[in-house]
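[step 3/7] fold_predict: job queued, chain A
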Amino acid sequence: MRTHDLAFLKRFSLVIAFLVLVALGLMLFAHHLNNKVEYPADPVVQQKLQDRIAPVGAVYAGATGAAAQAAAAAAAVAALTANVPFDGRTDGAEIFNNGPCTGCHTAGVGGAPKLDAAGIGARAAEQGVEMLIKKATEGFQGSVGVMPAKGGNPALTDEQMKAVVEWMVSQSK
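[step 4/7] structure written:
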């Protein structure tokens, strides 16, 4: 080999060794920084963990147990009513105008009876208001169209559906 080839290889080896040392130094520095940073716990992961390790049931004994059982029942009722649309109000006009009803019954979409004497009024006279309430609550598929259960919003209560149907009948006379 020539001397300038040996000089090139020597310098090239020194450059490669220097770059390897710099890379190792950066890796150690990154590892050091990563150990200093504390990452907050993800609340979703924590909740899933708590759900997995939660007991399946509970034992209620004595007066303390009865109070805990009553509190659990009240919490369950509150959780059920928390998702009721319109905060559980039974104003038929409000539910009709702001809920799923107006979309179909205003224009007669899909065979839905309109809010007039020939539509809802005729069906109420023919089938009775109680049957309309039952069909609106449980759903109905007729030869002309389909009425989904609770107008397609299963969160509506039976009392709200009754109030809407009664309001629609009163408006169609």
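[step 5/7] annotate
Strands lie at 140-141, 146-147.
The two ends are 110 Å apart (CA to CA).
exit 0
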